[in-house]
Design brief:
The complex is a heterodimer of chains A (405) and B (245). Chain A is of the alpha+beta class and 405 residues long. Chain A has two domains: 192 residues, no CATH class; 172 residues, no CATH class. Chain A contains 13 helices and ten strands. In chain A, strand 2 and strand 3 form a beta hairpin. The radius of gyration of chain A is 31 Å and the shape is elongated. Chain A starts with a helix and ends with a helix. Chain B has one domain: P-loop containing nucleotide triphosphate hydrolases (Rossmann fold). Chain B has 245 residues and is an alpha/beta fold. The longest helix of chain B has 18 residues. In chain B, 40% of the residues lie in helices and 27% in strands. In chain B, a hairpin with a 2-residue loop joins strand 1 and strand 2. In chain B, helix 3 packs across helix 4 and helix 5 runs parallel beside helix 6. Classes of the chains: A alpha+beta (405), B alpha/beta (245). At the A-B interface, helix 1, helix 10, helix 11 and helix 13 of A face helix 2 and helix 3 of B.
Chain lengths: 405, 245
């Protein structure tokens, strides 16, 4: 141990002898580690936020949406709807206990003279309220749940906070001239988009918006005792059957997903994103490593005489290797440290910026594992980069090294 | 009968300088006894430094054998030689060869670090040695802040740190003025007399040779044993120079 301590001291002295070069060498690693840490912690945060939300969903829930989930363009284009026939087909599928068709539309909402456009969710309160509470994690902070059939709505958290500041339970809102009572205010669901909506009974929603038939999404609850995957298949079969009968279509343009499957998809997509981030940032670190190697070769060359002296007074080849490896390892380690500090700082800034402007409760994830990994990885890169220069230093013959001017 | 410490047998050393082979030592044999004080003298380019390096286990001969305490060291791998140098041989160089970014104390401690001596012991020993040489106020100075004489005393302290049997010095006064040089030589004499160290000094200064008990003259890679041989060698050199011009 005494030896290592002394070697570390010697290595640090050497680093400090050429401060500018040492700093520049470290910057290379700092950039790479900074990229890895900031991007990974942000993507981890995004993943965490999405997973949290998805996890609120019960695992006996199946979601049926129009369009192929793998075909992003049709999904994004929107406008696709599930027809009444589709809803019937889902309802009749074996193992489906209840279904809740949902629809949504942005409408101008008036409250005490103020008018704002808000997304209104149309949900059958009769069948769906329980599901919303138990499986989607909706909770009230104020007021009560609405009574099905009455002109009552519940509003999500952001509505009384930002959209209509001062709104209270008991207030009245109007949509297309029809009046509704606000009977409850919801707890946050974890993202601003979901927290900026109004929930309305589906029948009233149809009346108000004119979207009389069909739904944009159906949630189906599996009867206890049935396997979720089997029920997913049953629903698919039923939908295919009914569509074939009606229009002779045989291309399925709907997606039937269990909550588990959705978690899988999100998890996979995020994992892919993270692998890509890691790949690109690694290239940056490797470039930093090449910088370290270059510096180390220069350093060995400059210190040939010093190496000769150390060998003359009893240093073995291995000792010289260790000395230089510690030095290059430090380049990596300090570079990594700088990158982590910078990366976490930027991730925090991004988190703050996103929360204040973009309406997404992003939390940059800074797991100790990520930090430790960043440090270990950069130290390792430093050591690998320093290996060849160290070897060349250790192989110098003492007499030649001493004679070197 | 004196005890043989170092024995050199028909040693040749050839360097490759690009295409040309340069033979620096041409069949040198000598014996250095334990506790002796030997000067190796000769003009520059005579091979005296090369001989010193081979005697000091810093280099190996191209041909021939070197024995240290009866054990052949001429074919040992570099790491084994490093071990021998660290424990048994202390080096003092003309250019001092201290590490510039280490303090006086750290420079003296360095050879002990390589031998794995615990820090406390290293520190004590280094302070003791530096104090012996009147450098107690220079512990934390770096070589750049010190005079030539002070630097050479640090170098001697470093050479003594592992208490080696042999001190090998390559023109130790070459970079010093005559007064300082004399003081340095006094240290060597003292080490020889009072600590019974075996000291081998390379020099081309005949005054220094006066201090030593034995002088090995080397010329053109060969040891000159008497006046006749010396004259013959000198003539040969002169003749070769004339031939070349």
């Amino acid at each position: 141990m005494g030896k290592t301590k002394e070697y570390i001291k010697i290595a640090i002295r050497s680093l400090r002898r050429r401060p500018v070069r040492s700093w520049l060498t470290m910057v290379g690693v700092v950039i790479g580690v900074f990229l890895i840490i900031s991007l990974l912690s942000l993507s981890e945060g995004i993943k965490g936020a999405m997973m949290d939300q998805l996890n609120m969903m019960g695992n006996d829930l199946i979601i049926i949406m129009p369009g192929e989930i793998t075909d992003i363009t049709t999904m994004m284009a929107g406008g696709l709807e599930l027809t009444e026939d589709d809803i019937e087909a889902v309802r009749k599928a074996e193992g489906v206990e209840t279904i809740v068709p949902m629809n949504y539309k942005a409408e101008a909402v008036r409250h005490e003279g103020r008018v704002k456009t808000i997304l209104i969710n149309g949900v059958s309160f009769e069948y769906g309220l329980e599901l919303l509470r138990n499986d989607m994690g909706l909770q009230l902070t104020d007021g009560r749940w609405p009574i099905p059939g009455k002109k009552e709505v519940i509003v999500a958290k952001v509505v009384p906070e930002d959209i209509f500041p001062g709104m209270e339970v008991g207030d009245e809102i109007s949509v297309r001239g029809k009046k509704f009572d606000v009977v409850g205010i919801l707890k946050s669901l974890g993202n601003k988009q979901d927290d900026s909506t109004i929930y309305m009974d589906l029948d009233l929603f149809a009346d108000v918006t004119g979207e009389r038939s069909g739904a944009k999404m159906i949630m189906a609850k599996v009867t206890p005792g049935y396997s979720v995957d089997n029920v997913v298949e049953n629903i698919k079969d039923n939908l295919n059957e009914s569509r074939k009968r009606r229009r002779g279509e045989d291309l399925p343009s709907f997606s039937v997903l269990s909550s588990e499957k959705i978690l899988d998809i999100v998890g996979n997509v995020m994992a892919l994103v993270q692998v890509a981030i890691f790949g690109f940032a690694s290239i940056a670190i490797v470039v930093g490593g090449i910088g370290i190697m270059n510096t180390m070769y220069t350093s060995v060359h400059e210190r040939i005489r010093e190496i000769g002296i150390m060998k003359a007074v009893g240093a073995k080849g291995r000792t010289i290797t260790i000395l230089f490896l510690i030095e290059s390892g430090f380049f990596g380690l300090f570079g990594g440290l700088g990158g982590i500090v910078l990366g976490l700082g930027v991730a925090k800034l991004a988190e703050f910026a996103v929360q204040t402007s973009a309406g997404f409760y992003l939390k940059a994830s800074m797991s100790p594992f990520l930090i430790l990994f960043g440090l270990a990885f950069s130290f390792l890169i430093g050591c690998i980069a320093g290996y060849l220069p160290s070897r060349s230093a250790s192989k110098l013959k003492p007499v030649d090294a001493l004679r070197y001017e | 009968m004196a005890e043989e410490l170092i024995k050199v047998e028909d040693v040749w050393k050839t360097y490759k300088l690009g295409e040309i082979d340069l033979t620096v030592l041409k069949g040198v044999s000598l014996v250095i006894n334990k506790g002796s004080f030997v000067a190796i003298m000769g003009p520059s380019g005579s091979g005296k430094s090369t001989l010193l390096h081979i005697v000091g286990a810093l280099d190996v001969p191209s041909k021939g054998k070197v024995f240290l305490e009866g054990k052949e060291i001429s074919e040992l791998p570099e790491d084994d030689l490093a071990q021998i140098r660290g424990r048994k041989i202390g080096f003092v160089f003309q250019q001092f060869n201290l590490l510039h970014n280490l303090t006086a104390l750290e420079n003296v401690m360095l050879p002990m670090t390589f031998q794995g001596i615990p820090e406390k012991e290293r520190m004590e020993r280094a302070k003791e040695l530096l104090t012996d040489f009147g450098l107690e106020k220079r512990f934390f100075h770096k070589p750049g802040e010190l005079s030539g004489g002070e630097r050479q005393r640090i170098a001697i302290a470093r050479a003594l740190s592992n208490d080696p049997e042999i001190i090998v010095a390559d023109e130790p006064t070459g970079n010093l003025d005559s007064t300082t040089g004399e003081k340095i030589m006094d240290i060597f004499i003292d080490l020889h007399r009072n600590q019974k160290k075996t000291i081998i000094v390379v020099t081309h200064d005949p005054h220094i040779a006066d201090y030593t008990e034995e002088t090995i003259n080397i010329m053109d890679g060969q040891i000159i044993h008497n006046h006749l041989e010396k004259e013959a060698a000198e003539e040969k050199i002169l003749w070769e120079r004339q031939k070349n011009t």
